[in-house]
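User: I'll paste a sequence; please echo it back and then give the predicted structure.

Assistant: Echoing your sequence first, then the prediction.
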Amino acid sequence: MGVLTSISRGLEAVSTPLGVLPDMVYAAAAASFLLLLIVYVFVTPSWREKKRKRGRAICVWLMFAIYVLLILAVTILGKRTGDSAVDMGIFTGSWVMETLVKVAAGTVAFVPLGALIMILMKGKYQAAKSIGASFALALCVEILQLVLKTGVFDLGNLLFHTIGAGIGIVFVIVWKYAFSRKSAFSYAMRLMLSILIVLMLLETAAFGAYHVLRTTGQEHMDENISVAENQMISKNTDGSDAKVSSDPDVIWYNGKAYRYNHDLVTMLVMGIDQESDTIEEKDDVSGESGQADSIFLMVMDKSKDEIKMISISRDTMTQIKTFDYKGNYLGKSKNHLGLAYSFGDGKVTSCQYMVDAVSNLFYGMPINGYVALNMNAVAMINDAVGGVTVTVPEDMTQVDPSFAEGAAVTLTGDQALKFTRYRDTEKDFSNNSRMERQKQYLVNFMGQAVKAMKEDMSLPVSLYQSLTDDMVTNLSLDRSVYLATEAMDMHFTADGIVSLKAKSKKGSVYDEVYVDDDALYDLIIQTFYTEEQSEGESK
């Protein structure tokens, strides 16, 4: 596992439990904490001594209460698992970056708590008593998780939480020492401590921003942007009557029950063929906005950490929305799928028409997002990852001299565009062979892209910025952060690309592709559903 993937998984593991509380709760707690800190540092010094001590004690107690309540809420008040366990290992597991991130987060989380306990502690042996109180509090958290069956009693967490509190206690001791003396050394210590506080605040703010983007991105990506209605009904391929479930998420198919998998994220990926070099918005004449030349439905399964790409022919005959040249709606008609894009504005509306058409073709399966790229952008993306190596499946020397059948070619620039876009329009069903080339290119591109990202972590951001004029997408920053987090650890292989089983037919003017409905239904079941386990069966 790469360092970037490990860090991503570690951050996700830290961020996920925080999702038990709304972001507004954290914002309110942070604002309250900051306000109390301001009162403690800037307001109370002007008060009389007795009032100042009382006021500062109240501020610290309130900050302590807020922090403890947050810790208890995150670790205990989450969804009950109905199960509990004890993990007495401290250095078990694979100590990769993912583990280090989680350990660091658990340690840092108790630093403020230790500092607050040290400030509140009175009498002799403050440090020792503060360590004991911190250990007792961490122990209570672990025991409560075990008793309430909301988590695991983890000896490692107990140790590192106590270490974090100890760091906070030491910080307070050093702080008091530095501000109780007037020497060059004490001033240097004050500066170092102040810088350390600023760095910790910046890191906390950065993680907070990541957490907010990830959680809001997940909420937005769970939304179905298609208006197509769910058309899935129980069926048996032998024509006999199938059982019907009262649960809308359950379908009976050939005597077995299947439940819709809510751990899926679906993205419609399109290559757009327009006459212009960039994707242009056209709102004056309907039907002239270009066509979706390449169409893939990407399905990310978070429960299996797998990505599947379903390749769909642009010539697929299906129900699409049609309009006259003035944009007046004429109703739905059976036509080429790729034409659905042309009736929109060339951008957002066109993408929405494609989303609705593809979702309708797939029996109303939800679609969560879309990306439409001008085909000319292929050259830019190809070069950004360092070129993609392919094996030319047929003689294409008329397109490029290096495209001899069987030749292994590392595509650069326009070569990538030629390889993925070319088809001989004089031959019937030439789009089928083009789709096979696109599938090969996509598999090899994904592998090369992963390598390029490991060498340059900023590649996705810079590429996204470069594609502004060549791309239309509903992926906002929060959606992108969430998808990047999820996709970082997912597997994608050649077996993950499937094409719809269909028959090609020569139409009156253009090629037509007719999808096998039974095969499509079976693909939907295998992709979007999971088999329900019958009573008495073992997993």
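The radius of gyration is 30 Å. Residues 535-539 have pLDDT under 50 and may be disordered.
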